[in-house]
Amino acid sequence: xxxxxxxxxxxxxxxxxxxxxxxxxxxxxxxxxxxxxxxxxxxxxxxxxxxxxxxxxxxxxxxxxxxxxxxxxxxxxxxxxxxxxxxxxxxxxxxxxxxxxxxxxxxxxxxxxxxxxxxxxxxxxxxxxxxxxxxxxxxxxxxxxxxxxxxxxxxxxxxxxxxxxxxxxxxxxxxxxxxxxxxxxxxxxxxxxxxxxxxxxxxxxxxxxxxxxxxxxxxxxxxxxxxxxxxxxxxxxxxxxxxxxxxxxxxxxxxxxxxxxxxxxxxxxxxxxx
Length: 274
What we know:
Helix content: 25-40%
Radius of gyration: 18 Å
CATH class: Alpha Beta
Number of strands: 11
CATH architecture: 3-Layer(aba) Sandwich
Number of helices: 9
């Protein structure tokens, strides 16, 4: 697969190449930026996952999708054998962590963003710093965070070490093999370069997980994401009345994804052996 170019539509309008990593089959954003260099590519205000109030139409759609996703996430983890110690890694504004806490989980949170950490502390959530302790957590969740991590193999090794035997790692990521990714191509909003450093598919996550020692449990479709991603993608295309087209594109993307368990975003459940 030849590298192809994607534009940072959100902030800088700069171009980045996506290059196939042959070892994992994931796509990697190049050039590779340091954490310090990447800071300038985050919006000063209004990065969706760090906001607690929805003001713009786009933010309201994001908040609507997020509320429904949180319900799905809680249903998925509700079936785990025990409501023990959970780490929500890359917790953003803490909405999921608070919801899980209300369900009876003992939740700790972590985020690299100073502004997000400030919000988490204001919401009286228990914040952690790395390195993490061994055999500390029953569940570790990363909701659309893993694609931001520069060294995924090192991160998985850390999570493996921090989980108790039988503990579960939950990874939700945009799916670069989805119908909408192929349809929108360089306008697919979930590429979100350069903030998204990696762009995964089912095979890549399964391969990375096995190399880290995890057992692959299951994959869940994330249907609501297709509508928000399609809306942003249509806006990047400068479509007139983008929300109408986005609704139908989201429906079709979900139909195609439902057939193949390959929706716009996927959630993976990986278990540390007992």
